[in-house]
Design a protein that fits this description.
mainly alpha, globular
Length: 409
């Protein structure tokens, strides 16, 4: 059975369980909360080992094949351009379509989460290099440590051959274990989706946020169903660009249900390798970087959310200078969300509201009930970007072995 079918069945069963089983009680909520937490721990269990070991192999092979510069250039170019594209789409959609206003409610202000840029930079080089393997959220720390080791092992192939061989074996070992974990997660996802459905059905029943969600969905269809395949068609000269979309189904389902970029990473790497045929030297470099920095989906949903809040508070037109300010802030800050694998989109919205000022400091509370939807849509956009972007890099660096769609997992 295809992996995406397993995840789809798990999601359907989770939705049905939310409506059939009597879980709207303290005991049921406690059980679901525990199972959800267990799922997150289970899903993230091998992220760091896979990222660290594969980064060593990837950096080593890229340096030896003299493809590191080209791979890095394509990767960061796509990260920047995709984030810019998604920001523009978000701004254009909310300006062209005037969504109904959200009823103003009075809520207690909460503390605004800050992006500690200084702390993030310091965390890249902990007091001990081995502490890099303990960081479970900001995976750039372990990726950088693995990359440094991989880079140095390529400087003397004879002297460091045992290290390179060990890294290669560990990478394959952790990957095979991760494959088993991703199979089990298709079962565990039932509990997560059950909890997600129970949380969201009362919000959907009000109909207040439905127009905003429809806009998110329409943007997703346009970008993933049209724009990204067209880019693949003309940039990669691939006559069957929808193969990439087909290979992305399972990762996108998981990312939407969890809103967690780190948890989804092993599944995207697996589909990149076994479905799209992206070689390890490329996937070990691109997928972690896309997961950390290609957060244009957060910029898109935040732009829409912010201007929906604006129109809910004011009937005046939005000045062009404010449109540009919001666009640039959402675009720029999206690259700093690597330390927030889940919930990053709503954190970005709170930061944007506080930075804008003019009485909007706590206006993000208007969309707080819909935060779970905002983060889910942001995550599915970012996962699609990682899949399409990594495929483009692989094609342009000739590190891909094309598989027929019948052999996709």
């Amino acid at each position: 059975m295809k992996v995406w079918i397993k995840y789809l069945i798990g999601i359907v069963l989770g939705v049905l369980a939310a409506f059939i089983l009597p879980l709207d009680n303290p005991v049921g909520s406690e059980i679901l909360s525990f199972l959800t937490e267990l799922f997150i721990h289970f899903g993230r269990y091998l992220v760091i080992p896979v990222v660290f070991s594969t980064a060593m192999v990837s950096m080593n092979k890229l340096r030896l094949s003299k493809l590191l510069g080209k791979t890095a250039l394509w990767t960061f170019s796509i990260i920047i351009l995709s984030s810019l594209l998604l920001t523009i789409v978000g701004i254009a959609s909310i300006l062209m379509v005037k969504l109904p206003r959200i009823p103003i409610t009075i809520d207690v202000a909460t503390e605004v989460t800050k992006i500690d840029v200084k702390g993030m930079l310091l965390s890249l080089f902990p007091l001990s290099g081995f502490d890099a393997l303990r960081e479970g959220s900001f995976i750039l720390v372990s990726f950088l440590f693995g990359g440094l080791i991989g880079w140095e092992t390529a400087s003397d192939q004879i002297l460091f051959k045992p290290v390179a061989t060990l890294a290669d074996s560990l990478s394959k070992l952790f990957y095979n274990i991760a494959v088993f974990f991703t199979e089990i997660m298709s079962v565990f996802i039932i509990a997560v989706v059950t909890s997600w459905t129970i949380t969201t059905r009362s919000i959907l029943a009000t109909g207040i946020y439905t127009p905003m969600l429809i806009m998110f969905l329409c943007d997703f269809i346009v970008i993933v169903g049209a724009i990204y395949p067209l880019i693949i068609r003309y940039v990669c000269h691939d006559p069957r660009p929808y193969r990439v979309l087909f290979a992305s189904i399972a990762p996108m389902l998981l990312s939407f249900a969890t809103g967690d970029s780190n948890l989804t990473l092993p599944l995207t790497i697996r589909h990149g390798k076994e479905s799209l045929g992206i070689r390890r030297r490329c996937s070990g470099f691109t997928f972690p970087l896309f997961s950390m920095f290609a957060r244009g989906g957060s910029a898109l949903v935040v732009c829409i959310s912010f201007f929906l809040i604006w129109r809910s508070y004011s009937s005046l037109g939005i000045p062009f200078s404010d449109i540009m300010w919001v666009s640039l802030m959402a675009f720029g800050l999206s690259f700093l969300l690597g330390g927030f694998p889940s919930g990053g989109a709503f954190i970005l919205l709170t930061i944007l509201c506080e930075a804008y000022g003019k009485g909007f400091e706590t206006s993000f509370l208007l969309l707080k009930p819909a935060a779970i939807f905002i983060c889910s849509f942001a995550s599915i956009f970012d996962t699609a970007t990682a899949m399409f972007g990594s495929y483009i890099v692989a094609v342009k660096t000739k590190t891909v072995e094309h598989h027929t769609i019948q052999h996709f997992i």
